[in-house]
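As a warm-up, study this chain.
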Amino acid sequence: MLHKNKRPYQLPALRDVIAKFDLSAKQCLGQNFLLDMNLTRRIVREVGNLKNQVVLEIGPGPGGLTRALLETEAKMVFAIERDPRCVAALSHLSGYFPGRLNVIEADALNFDLFEVINKSKITIVANLPYNISLPLLMSYLKKINKIKSMTLMFQKEVADRLTAKPGTKTYGRISVIAQWLCIVEKKLSIPPKAFVPPPKVHSNIVKFTPNFLHPDPILFQAMETVTAAAFGQRRKMLKSSLKSIFHNPIDILNSAKIDPSDRAERLKVDDFFKISELYLNSKTIL
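Now compare it with the structure written out below.
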């Protein structure tokens, strides 16, 4: 459903915007633009109902996905963009959507969006720059209690890791932490030809729906520490790989009812949670 202020026929074509603001994609910024509005609208439909929602977009570029978001009944779209050329193009776009688009020139990695966007819950939708996608995701997972949902684009290899199940080669740290906090679903598959310029990899849209678990920073850090130790030497048995964080890993694993001879890739998310709680208890005792 189009927002009452939206008049698509008034907007200049995205290719005209690119020409006007000299928006050739920069490899150093990880830029690959989505210009197909049919595709960007499909991505936004995967998000669900945005009526009265506050939406955050990271790295909007010339604004293809931004336009699709503004076509919905979202209350406000915040666009975080590092490239001043794209900021100028997006600021031009904001004139077509009075009071509904807020363009912020900033590096998303060094920007605390939750201090600026003072809302109880936000929805994040983004074609993330691939070179910073995982660090950005981890920063958002740490504040998952402030997020309604995330619908993000990753290169296929990363999407496979995020949705991997125990016992598979792609199952690892990021699989565990993401699935601990969210329902993680792989959605659309995006071919290279959909981008300008085309990347060398296929991409996937991944949706994250937070569960009811809102861990404090100490518990989150414990999960990071435990998964780093376990998967850092993933070919070793847990009784060996966890020696770096436990004096007696066999006793810890037995108390969690986990076979010490298992390897990290065989453990379920709940198993890592149990080990993390025991890790925190052992730190408290020490």
